[in-house]
Amino acid sequence: MPYQLPKSCNAGGCRSTAVAGSTYCEQHKDFQKNERAVYDKFRNRTSQERQFYNSSLWKNLSAAVRQHNVVCQAIENGAQCNSFSEVVHHLISPRENWELRIEESNLVAICKHHHNHSMGDSGDFQYVPTIGCQGQVHAHDVAISDPSSTENLGRCTAVGSSAIDRALAMDDDDFGK
Question: What is the DSSP letter of 60?
Answer without folding.
Answer: H
